[in-house]
Automatic annotation (TrEMBL):
It comes from the Bacteria. Residues 1-93 bind DNA. InterPro entries: AAA_22, AfsR-DnrI-RedD_regulator, BTAD, OmpR/PhoB-type_DNA-bd, P-loop_NTPase, Sig_transdc_resp-reg_C-effctor, TPR-like_helical_dom_sf, WH-like_DNA-bd_sf. The keyword tRNA processing does not apply. Residues 1-93 form the OmpR/PhoB-type domain. This is OmpR/PhoB-type domain-containing protein. Coiled coil: none annotated. It comes from Actinoallomurus liliacearum. Keywords: DNA-binding, Transcription, Transcription regulation. Belongs to the AfsR/DnrI/RedD regulatory family.
Amino acid sequence: MGPRFGILGSLRVLENDHPVDLGSRKQQIVLAALLCHANSLVSFDSLVEALWDDAPPRTARKNIQVYVSALRRLVGGGAGRISFRNGGYVFHATPAELDSLGFEQQARAGALADALGLWHGPVLDGFRGVPLIEAAAHRLEQRFLAVFEDWAEREIAAGGGAKVIEHVGEVARRHPLRERLRMTQMTALCQVGRRSEALAVYDELRQSLARELGLSPSPALAGFYQSLLREQGPAASSPAEPPARRTVPLSLLPWDLPTFTGRAAVTRQLADALTSGGNRLAVVTGPLGAGKTAIAVRVAHRLGDHFPDGRVFVRLRGEDGSPRPLEDVVSRLLPTASPGSPSEARRAWQLWLAGRRALVIVDDARRESEVRPLLPESGDSAVIVTARSRLAGLDAAYRLWISSFAMHEAVGLLGRLIGTERVTADRPSAELIVAAAGWLPLGVRLVAERLALLHHVPLREYAARMAGTRALLDELTAGDVAIRARLAEAIGELPEPAHRAVPRLGMLPEPVFTLQQAAAVLGADEATAVRVLESLLEASIITVPRVERIAHTVRYEIPVLPYAYAREMAARSTPLTDIEPALGQSHTARSYASTEMA
């Protein structure tokens, strides 16, 4: 029998049921970080930060290689157990070898008691001061709570309230503000005739919520409490009935656009994923102006019956484009809450979600860390995230890519906005106009605003005005909405190598290009160019219009509007020096290959 690994409690490695000496503290931190992200990549940079915070030694990478080499000898399997990949390490394990994977396997199979039996205390006790480990441990413990609550409710439904009482007290002491857990505790106590203790549990929770968060218990739990006071709660011999849902669901959605056009397939796919696909998280991505938010809002308006406890919308950016603090986001979602810190905000939001079936739209996310505190840790709520980036770090998400309109959809929207007769009278010019706008909903709407004002200008004349990159971006503006400003913001947020590459790609004579052409204009080798292009793909600045079998024949494309802006950047830039040093250093595949010797 091979080694077995444990993180559900203290860190441990057992060989033939005997503990293995895991070496120094830093070596143990490396192992703990790899185990709590088993079968996923943990980057060099993440490990450096976990070990030395902001003050790593010059030998940090070499030290990590030494730690990994020692761990390979301790746990066996060599590079097959801990492999190096893309600038980091992956610890390979199966559910039979690692308790956290076994827990998840048992939970998904419905063997809840067996899953809970794998827990021996707080996850990675003694390593929680390391942020990389703390974040993963927190997610595991939230999953434990959800499974424990599912198990407890199943036991209560079978008349096993007494068994639940044996275990729920200790869990509730560690998580005193979790409403679903407290509801379970109260129900179990009522089932065995200990109604006064159930009332005391509620009173304790009410005082704790008021003292620590300035909140009251949810209407559902308060209603359950009132039913107990009136002695209309569940009889001691039968399982408790769940409290009634709130009668007025929360609805904080923007207006569903009356001129919404096309997109029937993607709206149906998104709705089906959330209602019949078992998905609790959907990530809607696509280029600037593709209509991601409009699609999410339209779907939310149509799913009221599936999410009876509310549908809410929150933007993660202020009017100036700056990120909004979590406290501000939660206070807008829950106007009665006044969280003073991110941890209080997260707790208040999770308390509201617990026991509810709500749909949340998180709009314009730029990075995974902005989204994670808003994801439901338990219950039946769901979240739609809209983002230009694919947010690959969000696990178990249903992903929907929104591309530009088809020609007939773009022309149809233009007709709805400026009049079908005007479009029908000169359809070829209408097609030129929407093509110049990138076949994007936002571009077509901005053009339509201009054409509505310039109702005396023939479409043929206006199409000629849109020829040329600078004229094009000048036309795509209405009020305080301008494509140029949106593109400047999106490109300005790119990592430095990708940002510096955009004007270089604007020097290309055509928006469709090969890897070799990109490498030439970037002044970089092909391996470096690939990394830069993939960064731009992730940010939806470029696309791959057609999938090819051979990597070297792939064609990349800068869509119409980013290409126009890239050409503007190229025109106003002073001659750039060779950008390869900025593109590479520790970030290039070649650099990683030369330093990785472990």
